[in-house]
Sequence to fold (368 residues):
Amino acid sequence: MAGTRPDDERTNLRHAPTEGRYPSHVRELVASKFPIAMYEAGLADGTPAWGHGGFLLLDDLAAGVTYRASRRPDLVSESVLVRVLAPVGGWFSADLLDRMADAADQHGEGLIHLTTGGTIEIYVPRENVMPLVAALNDCGLDVGSTGDDLRGVTACCGPARCDCAIVDATGLATAIGRQFMDEQQYPGFPHKCKTAVAGCANDCIRAVMQKDHTFVGVYRDLPRLDQERLREWIAGGGEMDALMAACPGAAIRFDGQEAVIDGDRCARCMVCINRSPAFRPGRERGVAWVVGGKYGCRGPAGPMVGTVLIPFIPVVDGDYSQVADVFARFLEVWSEHGGIKERVGDFIVRYGTDNILREMGLDPEGGC
Fold:
């Protein structure tokens, strides 16, 4: 599994950075048991040395293990990985990271991969999959998120670190992950289904562009405006003309002393809030449900930006039951009417949002 150890002179990654003060991906690969000979072979001929793979269904594990086939079996036969259902928001204690590293060293290749999708993968020989899973379980972690299931729910850092957060993104994502744990571990949907929570409309995690389901923190009333703080901001160099020009709805008027927000024009976005501390989100808060985003070119519709399915679902005092309820209803409709290997976005284009809402028992004109 590990392939040729890279700590000899045969390793020839001339164009990859290995020296200097800062971490190098090559140096980290070399320090692990990763089969770096495969990396080198792919770079040498311009074709990845890894081929397509699949998902492993084990007697005691329906999801969470995938493999990548090898185009160079003379070097390595395959690459197997376990996907971890990680704490949302990217929050890990140092102790948890240490224990994960110990598990990766003892049972895997000594390498932990933090993916661009917000998940964690640990490479492991096939025969060590279940011992690794047991070690992760001892850390309080579980595995899943492979195949045609609900992928691990991700989120931005939320109010734990961001002053723009409108809802507790990590709290909502954790609640969804716990309620839909079976859906993350037992594939049964038409296709994979990626879900994320963005704490506000800034969507720093780009979920609307890449996730099948995104719950975005929004507010329904107008932004709160502190006139005295606005004057202080202007006196300190704040550019009111630039702020008003940036407003997508041209909703802000200023008479030199006080600003007024036109509620009919205001899009409840984050532009004024991002530009001036005098503007803060409103207090009537909830989430907008955006569906169908995906980067991939597969499917008849190709890459897609998400579509707003429900513009406002209230979230009060950490009660996420209404969000979970409508989410469950959508998954049932998609499971019943979705085609084989049809992503959510392609399903929406084919089936129509009005039909989906009716199947969910909602009025297309009435919202949630």
The chain has 13 helices and 15 strands.
